[in-house]
């Protein structure tokens, strides 16, 4: 009963607070006369899919992001999401909130090409399968206009389970109209040291924009590869599934 009440509070109070932060962000950004930009987004998704597995146990999640981009290229912010790793079936102290502070630097390589490097810290309000799960990730990315992004990430001690492993991702985007984008992603994460499997994943979908509202319809699929041992550990593969998300941006 207590756990159910906590989940209800997280589901409604967290996004409400972050909505107020986003409104403040919008006001602050409107007053900023420089090229620097403060922005915010609040979002609901029917499944929080990440690197080939679900961070919400196949259920919906509330999310928000507060981001600051300085005119020098330095950027930073905070990502917040509700999570459910499915471990509450086996452990009492299961995380329900994910916090990701991040910091980075973006720069131009030419008229069409840009790049950035950034750091993220994944922080959870409780345990991950009975043990702490916080970890760091370092990523470098190169982008061609707003159409193609290739990135390489290094995870340090993923989910506090040991090892250093890589993540490789390619994202493509094509604007169909001024209000509709098509985008797709393919990635491979070497997470066998922490999660017992490597994951190959991809998605494709369309995003519709109207003023500050975004609607995203997306198809996801993944495969588990290179099992570390015979124990049934690691997240399940994502069944071929469609995910719907709605966001408000400021």
Task: Tell me about this structure.
The protein is mainly beta. The chain has a single domain (2-243), classed as monomeric porin ompg (Porin, Beta Barrel). Helix content is 14%, strand content 52%. It is built from two helices and 14 strands; from the N terminus they run αβββββββββββαβββ. It has helices at 2-31, 192-195, and strands at 37-45, 49-50, 53-54, 61-69, 74-82, 97-108, 113-124, 135-144, 148-156, 164-175, 180-189, 198-210, 213-225, 241-249. Strands 1-4-5-6-7-8-9-10-11-12-13-14 form a twelve-stranded antiparallel beta barrel. Strands 2-3 form a two-stranded antiparallel ribbon. Strand 10 (164-175) and strand 11 form a beta hairpin. It is globular. Residues 1-13 and 15-33 have low confidence and may be disordered.
């Amino acid at each position: 009963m207590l756990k159910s009440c906590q989940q209800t509070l997280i589901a409604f109070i967290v996004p409400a607070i972050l909505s107020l932060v986003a409104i403040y962000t919008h006001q602050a950004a409107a007053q900023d006369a420089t090229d620097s930009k403060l922005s915010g987004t609040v979002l609901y998704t029917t499944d929080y899919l990440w690197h080939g597995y679900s961070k919400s146990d196949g259920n919906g999640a509330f999310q928000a992001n507060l981001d600051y981009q300085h005119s020098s290229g330095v950027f930073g912010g905070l990502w917040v999401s509700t999570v459910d790793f499915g471990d509450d079936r086996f452990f009492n102290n299961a995380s329900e909130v994910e916090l990701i502070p991040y910091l980075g630097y973006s720069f131009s390589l030419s008229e069409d090409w840009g790049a950035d490097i950034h750091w993220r810290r994944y922080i959870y309000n409780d345990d991950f399968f009975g043990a702490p799960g916080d970890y760091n990730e370092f990523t470098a990315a190169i982008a061609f206009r707003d159409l193609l992004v290739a990135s390489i990430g290094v995870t340090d001690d993923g989910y506090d389970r040991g090892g250093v492993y890589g993540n490789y991702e390619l994202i493509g985007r094509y604007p169909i109209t001024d209000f509709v984008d098509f985008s797709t992603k393919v990635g491979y994460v070497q997470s066998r040291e922490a999660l017992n499997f490597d994951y190959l994943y991809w998605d494709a979908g369309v995003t519709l924009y109207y003023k500050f509202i975004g609607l995203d319809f997306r198809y996801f699929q993944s495969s588990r590869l290179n099992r570390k041992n015979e124990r049934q550990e690691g997240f399940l593969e994502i069944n071929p599934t469609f995910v719907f998300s709605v966001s408000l941006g400021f």
